[in-house]
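seq as requested:
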Amino acid sequence: MDRVALRGLRARGHHGVFPEEREEGQTFVVDLVLGLDTRPAAADDDLAKTVHYGIVAEEVVAVVEGEPVNLIETLAERIAQACLKHEGVQEVEVRVHKPAAPITVPFDDVTVTITRSRA
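struct tokens:
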């Protein structure tokens, strides 16, 4: 299976369990790795035979900016489901970063990574 990766998609969302997270919002960062067969697209040099990663990026940002959820695990699942709606995408790895998580000790980042497939 071939891979198409999008790294560092940024969007402001209002996800979290604390009221201040819901009210103020924060920036979330998303990395995606889409698994698909790119041979048909390469053979014909045809965008219609692969995944349009620009559209995927817009849809992922819309999910992050959309309905708030408590957990980034839930957010990652919603993003994965949006990606799998694209014909040809057989598998997706989603990593959601929450670099401004409300943690009381110094840290660099919090991430949740999931892998989902059609099978």
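The chain is about 30% helix and 30% strand.
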